[in-house]
Amino acid sequence: MKKILISLFLFVLASASAYSQLQQQQPPPKLKPTFHVEDLVFVYQTLETVDISGGEVDVFLEVRNFLQATIKSIQEAKKQAGDTYQTEIPLPLAQNMLSFLSRAKFSGRNAELYKRFVDSLVESSKALQPQQGNK
Question: What domain range includes position 19?
Fold first, then answer.
């Protein structure tokens, strides 16, 4: 079920990205998710354990650097683990992050953190979908 949800989300994101890039050659759209601080820390720590191939190094470092900068901003804002934090993530970066996370292994006690993180990205991606009914 988890893989189906992630695959569906990645397909929606890829479709939105391709559609917007065909319209105009402009920067990729950005998601504006609101995360729990503890979820972002969990994702950062989990990604550090993912095995990657040589061809993924640049993309992985881009994801990791984004998370490091976000966590630094959270620390500077003096946010606590239970607080929420809104950030902007370029669509391709979010797709890559989810791709790496789908390969991660973590204990069952972290399932809620993972699900909340993915749900936040999915919810924020809905703003990118074209409006239905305007045909």
Answer: 2-128
The pLDDT tens digits of the residues spanning 6-41 come to 765 666 556 656 555 555 678 889 999 999 999 999
Beta-bridge mates of residue 2: none
**What is the Cα 30 distance to its own chain's centre?**
11
- Residues facing residue 85 across a β-bridge: 35
Angle between helices 37-47 and 91-102 (to 10 degrees): 60
Domain presence at residue 134:
no
Q: Is residue 133 part of a domain?
A: no
Q: Which two tokens stand for residue 29?
A: 């759209």
Q: What token pair was written down for 60?
A: 């992985």
Does residue 97 sit within a domain? yes
pTM (2 d.p.): 0.74
| 135, part of any domain | no
